[in-house]
Amino acid sequence: MMSLRRILLSPLVGVTSIVLLLALYFRSSFKSPPQHNQRLFSAEELALYNGTDETLPILLGILGSVYDVTKGKSHYGSGGSYNHFSGRDASRAFVSGNFTGDGLTDSLHGLSSSEVKSIVDWRGFYSRTYTPVGKLVGRYYDSQGNPTKHLKGAEAKASRGAQLMEKQKIEEDKQKNCNSRWSQDEGGKVWCDVGVPRLVQRPLEIAITGSMSKRCACFEEDQLDQSGLEIYKDCEPLAKSCKV
Fold this sequence. Notes:
Layout: H1 2-8, H2 11-29, E1 39-41, H3 43-46, E2 59-62, E3 65-68, H4 73-76, H5 93-96, H6 113-129, E4 131-136, H7 149-173, E5 179-183, E6 187-191, E7 196-201, H8 205-209, E8 214-219, E9 241-243
Parallel strand pairs: 1-4
Antiparallel strand pairs: 2-3, 3-4, 5-6, 6-9, 7-8
InterPro entries: Cyt_B5-like_heme/steroid-bd (IPR001199), Cyt_B5-like_heme/steroid_sf (IPR036400), MAPR/NEUFC/NENF-like (IPR050577)
Family: Belongs to the cytochrome b5 family. MAPR subfamily.
Pfam families: Cyt-b5
């Protein structure tokens, strides 16, 4: 008992304890902040990397994520066919095809869930193909580099679009699509190997694309009493092929 007391009261043990306490104190007080390797860009800063300055890399933004596309310089550099995407976030143009003026914007207002999904898929393409270098502060990332409600909303809409498209595919696989062909000389033609062609509504399409559409499906004779089946114009009711 005396030897243990002597050890505990030893100056060496006291010094060691103090050193350990100080080490713990400094470790907690001066802990390194999280390292953010990616840069935060303003729109003005990103615009400098549009391929006109040969000494700078070429950068592109999509949904607020910024990628170095310099290795695709022939496409994204000055005079390249995709140069309109360089130095900015023109997310909307990836699906609108409007590469001038107001079309070169990051706003997705009014786009359908399938169009938003397509833009998210494009972001995936750039993530796989090019080097991510930062975030664009604005609509999709705040000044701390955190995702905004706009980004979360876009991703949720894209996810919903993917679910609807999968559901539509499952439903439409139950009724086989028509075969189709088009040529400049003969025009269009649809036909069925089994059954006869009918136009049918795609009920999920309005939720996916924002507009109604129809498809050609093949129905056997005992299915033709279903509602909503439309015969092609100038086509015989039991014809296996129709001009369109």
